[in-house]
Amino acid sequence: MSANKSITERIFQAIGFELLAILICTPLLAWIMDKPMLEMGVVTLVIAALALAWNVVFNGLFDRLLKRFAIAHNAWVRVVHALLFEGGLVALGVPLIAWWLNISLWQAFLLDIGVLLFFLPYTYVYHWVYDVVRERVVMRQTCVQ
User: Fold this and answer.
1) Range of the domain at 30
2) Would residue 56 count as lying in a domain?
3) Residue 2 placed within a domain
4) Contact 100, 46 (CB under 8 A)
5) Is the pTM of this model over 0.85?
6) pLDDT, average across residues 92-99
7) Which is more confidently placed, 42 or 4?
8) pLDDT range class, residue 2, cuts 50, 70, 90
9) Superkingdom of this entry's organism (predicted)?
């Protein structure tokens, strides 16, 4: 895994992460909460925008720490990555969800925990697949040059 990603690539990676998540979560949450698809779509988009910004900032910092301390990007590091990323997103998102849906912080927290059960494995798998595909593309470009 290479930490040498440009800001453009980090934004591309984060947008891909969020778009796929929106496509999965909007209909699922509308069904679970018995809310109109449009209402849950707006909530999902707002949270996705927050998550997008968090994704770019967090992954940049995380990759720099790995590089600075020469930490191998193995399965355990990916678990720590997913836990820290989602923990930060919970702290940022719960108050927003509570306000937007006009529910208590506790209800928003419980909703977020349900969503977290989806996003923990999703975050792990998405970034793992992205890194594997990226490494192959980089290696192919290196061989061509």
Assistant:
1) 7-144
2) yes
3) no
4) yes
5) no
6) 92
7) 42
8) low
9) Bacteria
